[in-house]
Amino acid sequence: xxxxxxxxxxxxxxxxxxxxxxxxxxxxxxxxxxxxxxxxxxxxxxxxxxxxxxxxxxxxxxxxxxxxxxxxxxxxxxxxxxxxxxxxxxxxxxxxxxxxxxxxxxxxxxxxxxxxxxxxxxxxxxxxxxxxxxxxxxxxxxxxxxxxxxxxxxxxxxxxxxxxxxxxxxxxxxxxxxxxxxxxxxxxxxxxxxxxxxxxxxxxxxxxxxxxxxxxxxxxxxxxxxxxxxxxxxxxxxxxxxxxxxxxxxxxxxxxxxxxxxxxxxxxxxxxxxxxxxxxxxxxxxxxxxxxxxxxxxxxxxxxxxxxxxxxxxxxxxxxxxxxxxxxxxxxxxxxxxxxxxxxxxxxxxxxxxxxxxxxxxxxxxxxxxxxxxxxxxxxxxxxxxxxxxxxxxxxxxxxxxx
Length: 403
Ligand SMILES: [Zn+2]
Known about the structure:
Pfam families: ROK. By secondary structure, the chain is α/β, with parallel strands linked by helices. The chain has helices at 2-29, 34-41, 45-57, 121-138, 175-178, 191-201, 261-264, 267-279, 293-301, 305-329, 344-357, 361-364, 380-391, 394-402; strands spanning 61-66, 75-80, 86-92, 96-103, 108-115, 144-151, 154-156, 161-164, 186-190, 211-216, 220-226, 229-230, 333-337, 368-371.
């Protein structure tokens, strides 16, 4: 009996994996003909016909006529229906929860944000639930398929468990279970990793299968895409480059160690270093009273001695870590997000010089440093979590089972 049911399960799983593969091909390469789907997926034409029939029945894809370049009868191709399906994407920030209603094309239909008043488990779960319910009520006629939640820290997307948050007391919270009463699939993920995937789907890394996103705000983190796949440990988070030690006798980091990268290269670190130099009496257009990261970046671009010195130093520290990453992952490009990127004309050549100094010439020779498309710490990461869930089958099956 057991054996038989396992066989059925495997057959069902195979069908689900094939359906997801066909959906993904249409989503990424559409409009695309059934013949080309069969060629690219190596599935039998009859299977492709069968799967596309089901996807059409659930309104997940549409047929479009495409005129062949050689003339003659227009061919029928398939494309995904991105604007019929909505999801709520939340970003759990340090002091705010931002929530938006998005569709599968990435268009944002509604955004709202609310301050976080209580940073413990109950407070965070209640605030998230309130935000989601408000949007749900307001857009009751929209077809909601899922909820995505991104945040800084160590999270396990598979189990929905939060292992560590630098900003809230929620370690050990199984967030997807805590929001089970909403009766929608909940996907959670680390903000930077999810945003790297969003750059791949929608941003500056389309068609780029090997790249790294570096985010510099209060902390420093990385999302690594290699061979078109976001690197995620099975149950072990990766990409925490902010805690690579730069100075063993440096400042204490919130992780407990000393002199981590994010204690020397982050918005806060740059502002503190500036204040220190100003206090020592170094000449600058900047003043300690009105110092902001935007003013600092502007001064660096104007050639201010203090700001330029600190950008040069930051490029050295950051470049050292990036050099390691380039030697290990050999990316085609590195994308940067964060306020500090306003200094790109000054920062990027310095960084590239530092990276080239410590990497294989063939690795760094054609490496490009670019600004990421998505610069704000907003809810775009959730888009990637939902896309990935559709492409990796379980969300697609839930949508088809619902109707
Ligand atoms: Zn640290």
